[in-house]
Design a protein that fits this description.
The chain is mostly helical. It is 57% helix and 3% strand. It contains five helices and two strands, in the order ββααααα. α3 (100-114) packs parallel to α5.
Length: 202
């Protein structure tokens, strides 16, 4: 019979948590904020994937299948990146969680998707279709993950520069994938209007 392991341990009831090295730190430590936000980003991407699966298959099928593959790969890379951020410098692995090849792959994905889109001539607001809006939300969380990683780098100096570049490029990819999804569903985002007026009184 398989041994049942409880999800709760009670060891964090004092507001601390354990790193991969075994060291315990406060749950609001900069390192926890960094890898916790990466985990939040992956969760938001998971919701986007779930909403994509419920979207009409036509005309989204090609874009959806392509974005599915990319998002699955991204979640794998984010899991590895979170593990690296959770590990203090003295215990880090020899091989970084993300590489220059991964950054180049994201740039390729951006270029391929952007080639199918109309150029932007103004700012747009996050929104459009539900899956597109979720990808926009994931983009903003990705930006926050990048900021948290920078805070950790400035404090401890042990965040790989490639990790920062990966998060920076990923936020751009999520933006383009959001636009591509909305374009495929014919539900574009609302454009920013400089002279926007409040709705008239009814």
């Amino acid at each position: 019979m398989a041994k049942h392991t409880r999800i709760y341990t009670r060891t964090g009831d004092d507001g601390s948590t354990g790193l991969y090295s075994g060291v315990r730190v406060p749950k609001n430590d900069a390192r926890i904020e960094a890898y916790g936000t990466v985990d939040e980003l992956s969760s938001a991407i998971g919701v986007a994937v779930a909403t994509l699966s419920g979207a009409p298959s036509t005309p989204l099928r090609y874009a959806r299948d392509d974005i599915y593959k990319w998002l699955g790969w991204v979640q794998d890379k984010l899991f590895d990146l979170g593990a690296e951020l959770a590990t203090p410098s003295g215990s880090k692995r020899a091989v970084p969680a993300v590489s220059e090849d991964d950054v180049a792959a994201l740039e390729r994905a951006i270029d391929e998707s952007e080639a199918t889109l109309e150029p932007l001539d103004t700012f747009i607001h996050p929104g459009g279709s539900l899956p597109g809006a979720m990808l926009h939300l994931a983009r903003t969380i990705c930006r926050r993950a990048e900021r948290r990683a920078l805070t950790l780098r400035d404090r401890d100096g042990d965040v790989d520069p490639i990790a920062i570049r990966f998060l920076n490029r990923l936020s751009d990819a999520l933006f383009v994938w959001a636009r591509a999804t909305n374009a495929a569903l014919s539900e574009p985002e609302r454009r920013w209007r400089k002279e926007s007026l409040a709705p008239e009184r009814r």
